[in-house]
Structures are given as structure tokens and as C-alpha cells.
């Protein structure tokens, strides 16, 4: 398959700040900042079809934000001061913006700079082009942009007090991935253009601001008129989608000297107890693939409208409250977001066509953490569930979208965020591990993170690296790995091997007995299963089941629901699996449970499939989906509504 050509600017390495050392201080403390260093290798500028930026001419190296939050207007306003470097003689800087009100652009001395905003394109927004005097060789130019976000900024969700756990104070959070940072920060919003950043955020004094960076003022600074300012800095260069903000009534509790939990005060004890394994996970991750290079690792458990399970924002993972199950059964999500500190945050896909480089590596790494902390059986069960999900995804997608290397030009990059990137990518890496042996594979992977730290990565660069440092010209090994087939061909290659787990053997037997013979499993058996076994049980389907066909009677559904209390299940993953069954059978108690569930959280992983299932059930399901969505849509983040709108349609009014 032809490889997308690279637009290179030669060995144009960008000076970046060094990595923060691990700190035993509290979140607000200021550790010593190491001197600036160079990236592990020169940056190769790659054409990003989702950005207007021309980094080979002029690119942003640092962003300094000074913003005030206005909850009444649902707007952030202030300035973004950009540090710009580029080719000698460059007179133009091109940025990405979407639904931003740009008020002025000035130089460091306050003189106006001419600028223009181009026509908006779907998904990618507009180009903000700034004219400036010619850059001198080696010069860093400051460009100051005064602007305000609009209430509809897709990265930001402004919550009313009623949408929070406390019910008394409003809340704001951002979600920049994939290309939504441009809706609240005017910068070059491409994952291949890494930037350090700093911020001063002014908020009402009853609230606290936290960000994905070192907190310099943990108690804030008076900003007048009942407002408080918080300051932050990130000295490691990051892709812009990792700049993240949360503002609300939040409190902190440490887990150990470098990990801890932020969330609303009423949820803090439960969240802290649930996420206590985080500290051990950091130790395990470091033992596997080298030092954690971001200072602290804290988590912010957000209100339920957060659209993702988690977001790997450096130093401060954003997490959904749906992982607080009460038994630590869903902490694999923490392992996943932590693993991103290496795969994604340290080594980042250069464009969204290469998204598997972030997620495939992270799912592999996550599973290694889970194996070390919880044992091989738990890790293998999660692999099996991942394989099941991958097979279903491949069956549903057009063949071109089942390749690891995607072609997303003209499409929303969110369309590439499927289990192909996550699970096919991970099984590709497991195949390499199986063929070469774990010790040899681990040595290569640790070196991969070190060699490519803080610079963008493409699929082609990955292939160069693994061929140079692992395969080393061994043609027999190259043939065994079938790398080009994994990356550039649809589906799964012939060397893909489905994982198996002995722990699922009794589960499968019980599922067959239940769904064929109609007898629910004994409650004692169900209570003895872990979450992964319960998910496996509820995922069972008769062989050869046709799409849209029922496989249970109303009496069987009622008996199963009553025996296992499934419609009242508190574990979000298990309840979701049950609701998929109940809604597909038009089971009325499941409709009641689904409405409560869909009005209680906005995690797209659950929301979109449930509305899709309802919509597929004809008049019954469509009437139900329309009624629930009319009530639920105002509670959801734009990332979630954008997906569900495409299925259900936007409610009238």
C-alpha cells in the first residue's frame, strides 16, 4: 500500500524544556525545574489534514494563557501569548481556530498585527493567519492574541450546579482530543506540533482551577471582585490536545507522595478508596518501561457528563465517575490512562491517521500493568474481552477502516477512535512479543520510548525504528511478523491468534445453559464472578444469530433480571451489557433502567451504543430514544451529542 508522503523541513529540531523530576511535594508545590534539553531525535514535520498550520515555515513552541472564566456568559476570555520560531524570513503564522471571537492580534510591544480568519470547514474550523515582520534566524517571536470563547465551544462544558454532585456550585471542564483545543485556544492544533505552556486562570473565589500541569499557586492569588487566580506551567512539550482545564468545587486527597485524587468533596472518600491502586501502578509502569517523566500523577474524577472513560492529560488524568464501582473492578482504566504517559504523551501520533500508535501501544501497556498488579488470569480475561469487541467492530466497519493506518481526510478524526486502533493495535504488539519473546520485545519497547521521547511519531517512523532496533535485517523474522499486513491491510492477518482464558470456561457453560435452556445461573455463582466474567456472560450470543433477531423470551428476561437484579446493577460496565440485551428485546423494565442510566452519565462508550440499539428496534425503540434524548441531550458534552445526533437526530427546540 502506498505510504503517505511526508513534508519534511530537514533536521529542524525544536528546543524544548526538560522533563520534570518526580516530586514528593503536594500538588501545589514547585519542584526544581531542570534545564532545557533537545528532543531525542529531530522533528520531522508531517502534513496534518486536520490542521491549517504550516510548521515547516513557522510554528508555535510555547503558549501562555491569561484567561478569566465567566460562568454567566459561558465564556473564557483573555489572551494567548504564543512563542513562534521558524524559517528565516518567514512573514506568516497560520493557526487553527473554531468558533472563537478573535478581538486583536499584537506583537510583544503592543503593536497591532494584521490578521485574517478564513472560511470555516466542517470539523476543522478556520485558519487564523497572522502577518508579521520577517523572522530572523534563531529568533523567537511573541504573538499576543486577545479573544473569547463562545458558549458553544465544543471543547468546553459549562455545568449548572444541578449537574454536579454537590448541587450548589457550577463546574467547567475541557476536553481537547482530537481537534477541539482550537475551540478554546488559538494555536496550531495538531498533535505533531508539541508546545510547552503556562497559564493564569481567574475564577470565582468559591471555585478552584486545576490543570494538566504543575500547579504553582495551590491556594490561588486574589484577583479582585470576588475572584481568584491560579497559575500553572508545563515544561514538557505536549500536543495541544493535552492542555486541559477543570474549574469547580473540588478537593484533593493524596494516595502517596506523588499520586492523589481530586473530585467534588462529597465524592472524595469513595474516589480515593477506589483509586488507591494508582500508586502501585505507577511503580509497575516504571519498572516495565522506564521513568515516569511528568512529576506527579493525579486524577480528577469529573461530574458524570464527561464524555470519555478517561483522558490522559499529563499530571492530571480526567476520569469518569462511572469507574467508581465500589470494588476496584474497573481500575484498568487508570492503568490505561497512566500508560499513556509513555505511549501518547511521551511518544505521540503525528496525525490522527496514526492514532493506533497512541492507543494500540497503550492497551498493550495497560494489560501488562494489570498483569503485574492483578495477575495473569485477570489480564488474560481482559484480552479475551478485547478480542470479542474487536471482532464485532471489524464486522461493523467498512474494510478500509479496519486498517491500523487510516485515511481520515475530510472526516472527523473521532471516526478513527474505534477498537481497531485500540485492540487491533494491541494484538499486533502482542504478536510481535509472542514471536520474538517478551524479554527481547520489552527491551525494544523501552528503547522506543527513550529514542522518540517528546517528538511526533508516524507509522512509517515506527516501522523504521522496529526494523532498525529489533528486526535488524532478519528477513525470516520480518516475514513472521507480517507487519505490513497488520498495518495496511483490513481485518486480521493470518498470524493473529485469539486469546483464551480458563476462567471463562464455567462462565460460557453457564451462559449456554441460561440462554438456551432459560435457567438463570445460581446467585451464588454470579456473586463469585468478577466483573470481567459477568461481562463475558452477558456478551454471549447464540451462534449464527441474525442481526435484529431475539434470542430470549420475555419470561427468560424477567427471570434473569429478577435473579440477578440486573436492571438495578451499580457496576456501569455490567449494567450497560444487560441494557444492550434488554433493549434489543424491547423489554420494558430495561427501558426504565436505560432511561435512568442515560440521564445519570454522559460517557459516550455507553450512551452511543444504547441509543443505537434503541433506534434499531423500530417504532418502539425510536419513540423511546427520542423521548429520552430530549431530556438527556442538555446534560451531555458536545463530543457525545455530536455522535448521538447522527443516530437519533437533534431534538426539536
Q: What is the mean predicted local confidence, pLDDT?
A: 92
Give the total of domains. Answer: 4
Query: How many beta strands in the DSSP annotation?
Result: 22
Q: What is the share of helical residues?
A: 25-40%
What general outline do the C-alpha atoms trace?
globular
CATH C-level class of the largest domain: Mainly Beta
The count of helical stretches stands at 19
- CATH architecture field of the largest domain: Sandwich
The rounded distance between the terminal residues' Cα atoms is 48 Å
CATH topology of the largest domain: Immunoglobulin-like
Give the name of the CATH superfamily of the largest domain. Answer: tricorn interacting facor f3 domain
Largest sheet, strands/sense/barrel? 8 strands, mixed
Folded structure, characterized:
There is one protein chain. With about 650 residues, the chain is of the alpha+beta class. It has four domains: about 1-250, tricorn interacting facor f3 domain (Immunoglobulin-like); about 255-340, Zincin-like, CATH 3.30.2010.30; about 345-490, Neutral Protease Domain 2 (Neutral Protease, domain 2, Orthogonal Bundle); about 505-650, Peptidase M1, leukotriene A4 hydrolase/aminopeptidase C-terminal domain (Serine Threonine Protein Phosphatase 5, Tetratricopeptide repeat). The protein is built from 19 helices and 22 strands. The strands form five sheets. Strands 1, 2, 4, 7, 10, 12, 13 and 14 form an eight-stranded mixed β-sheet that branches. A hairpin with a 2-residue loop joins strand 13 (about 220-225) and strand 14. It is globular, with a radius of gyration of 25 Å. Residues about 1-35 have low confidence and may be disordered.
Amino acid at each position: 500500500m502506498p505510504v503517505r508522503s511526508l513534508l519534511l523541513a530537514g533536521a529542524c529540531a525544536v528546543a524544548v524544556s526538560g522533563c520534570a523530576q518526580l516530586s514528593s511535594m503536594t500538588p501545589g508545590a514547585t519542584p526544581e525545574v531542570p534545564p532545557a534539553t533537545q528532543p531525542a531525535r529531530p522533528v520531522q514535520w508531517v502534513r496534518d489534514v486536520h490542521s491549517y498550520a504550516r510548521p515547516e515555515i513557522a510554528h508555535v513552541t510555547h503558549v501562555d494563557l491569561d484567561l478569566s472564566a465567566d460562568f454567566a456568559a459561558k465564556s473564557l476570555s483573555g489572551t494567548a501569548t504564543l512563542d513562534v520560531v521558524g524559517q528565516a524570513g518567514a512573514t506568516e503564522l497560520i493557526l487553527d481556530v473554531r468558533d472563537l471571537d478573535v478581538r486583536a492580534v499584537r506583537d510583544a510591544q503592543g503593536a497591532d498585527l494584521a490578521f485574517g480568519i478564513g472560511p470555516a470547514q466542517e470539523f476543522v474550523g478556520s485558519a487564523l493567519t497572522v502577518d508579521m515582520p520577517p523572522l530572523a534566524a534563531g529568533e523567537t517571536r511573541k504573538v499576543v492574541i486577545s479573544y473569547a470563547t463562545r458558549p458553544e465551544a465544543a471543547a468546553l462544558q459549562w455545568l449548572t450546579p444541578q449537574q454536579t454532585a454537590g448541587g450548589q456550585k457550577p463546574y467547567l471542564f475541557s476536553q481537547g482530543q482530537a481537534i477541539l483545543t482550537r475551540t478554546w485556544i488559538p494555536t496550531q492544533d495538531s498533535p505533531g506540533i508539541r508546545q510547552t505552556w503556562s497559564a493564569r486562570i481567574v475564577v470565582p473565589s468559591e471555585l478552584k482551577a486545576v490543570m494538566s500541569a504543575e500547579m504553582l499557586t495551590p491556594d490561588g492569588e486574589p484577583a479582585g471582585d470576588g475572584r481568584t487566580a491560579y497559575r500553572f506551567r508545563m515544561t514538557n512539550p505536549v500536543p495541544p490536545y493535552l492542555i486541559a482545564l477543570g474549574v469547580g468545587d473540588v478537593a484533593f486527597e493524596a494516595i502517596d507522595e506523588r499520586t492523589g485524587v481530586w473530585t467534588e468533596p462529597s465524592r472524595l472518600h469513595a474516589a480515593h478508596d477506589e483509586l488507591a491502586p494508582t500508586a502501585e501502578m505507577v511503580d509497575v509502569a516504571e519498572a516495565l518501561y522506564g521513568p515516569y517523566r511528568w512529576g506527579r500523577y493525579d486524577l480528577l474524577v469529573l461530574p458524570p457528563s464527561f464524555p470519555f472513560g478517561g483522558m490522559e492529560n499529563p499530571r492530571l488524568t480526567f476520569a469518569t465517575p462511572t469507574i467508581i464501582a465500589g470494588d476496584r473492578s474497573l481500575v484498568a482504566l487508570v492503568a490505561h490512562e497512566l500508560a499513556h504517559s509513555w505511549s501518547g504523551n511521551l511518544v505521540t501520533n503525528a496525525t490522527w491517521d496514526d492514532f493506533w500508535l497512541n492507543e494500540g501501544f497503550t492497551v498493550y501497556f495497560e494489560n501488562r500493568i494489570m498483569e503485574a498488579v492483578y495477575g495473569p488470569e485477570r489480564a488474560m480475561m481482559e484480552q479475551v474481552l478485547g478480542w470479542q469487541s474487536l471482532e464485532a467492530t471489524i464486522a461493523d466497519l467498512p474494510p478500509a477502516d479496519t486498517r491500523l493506518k487510516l485515511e481520515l481526510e475530510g472526516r472527523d478524526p473521532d471516526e478513527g477512535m474505534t477498537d481497531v486502533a485500540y485492540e487491533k493495535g494491541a494484538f499486533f504488539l502482542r504478536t510481535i512479543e509472542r514471536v520474538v519473546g517478551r524479554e527481547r520485545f520489552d527491551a525494544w519497547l523501552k528503547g522506543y520510548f527513550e529514542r522518540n521521547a517528546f517528538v511526533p511519531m508516524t507509522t512509517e517512523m515506527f516501522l523504521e525504528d522496529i526494523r532498525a532496533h529489533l528486526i535488524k535485517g532478519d528477513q525470516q523474522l520480518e516475514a513472521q511478523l507480517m507487519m505490513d499486513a497488520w498495518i495496511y491491510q483490513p481485518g486480521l492477518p493470518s498470524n493473529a491468534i485469539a486469546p483464551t482464558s480458563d476462567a471463562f470456561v464455567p462462565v460460557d457453560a453457564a451462559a449456554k445453559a441460561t440462554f438456551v435452556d432459560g435457567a438463570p445461573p445460581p446467585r451464588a455463582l454470579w456473586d463469585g464472578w468478577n466483573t470481567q466474567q459477568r461481562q463475558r456472560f452477558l456478551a454471549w450470543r447464540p451462534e449464527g444469530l441474525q442481526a435484529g433477531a431475539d434470542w430470549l423470551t420475555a419470561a427468560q428476561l424477567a427471570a434473569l433480571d429478577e435473579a440477578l437484579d440486573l436492571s438495578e446493577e451499580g457496576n456501569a460496565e455490567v449494567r450497560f451489557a444487560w441494557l444492550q440485551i434488554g433493549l434489543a428485546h424491547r423489554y420494558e423494565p430495561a427501558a426504565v433502567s436505560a432511561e435512568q442510566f442515560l440521564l445519570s452519565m454522559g460517557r459516550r462508550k455507553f450512551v452511543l451504543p444504547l441509543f443505537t440499539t434503541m433506534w434499531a428496534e423500530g417504532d418502539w425503540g425510536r419513540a423511546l430514544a427520542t423521548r429520552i434524548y430530549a431530556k438527556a441531550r442538555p446534560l451531555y458534552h458536545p463530543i457525545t451529542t455530536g455522535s448521538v445526533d447522527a443516530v437519533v437526530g437533534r431534538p426539536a427546540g
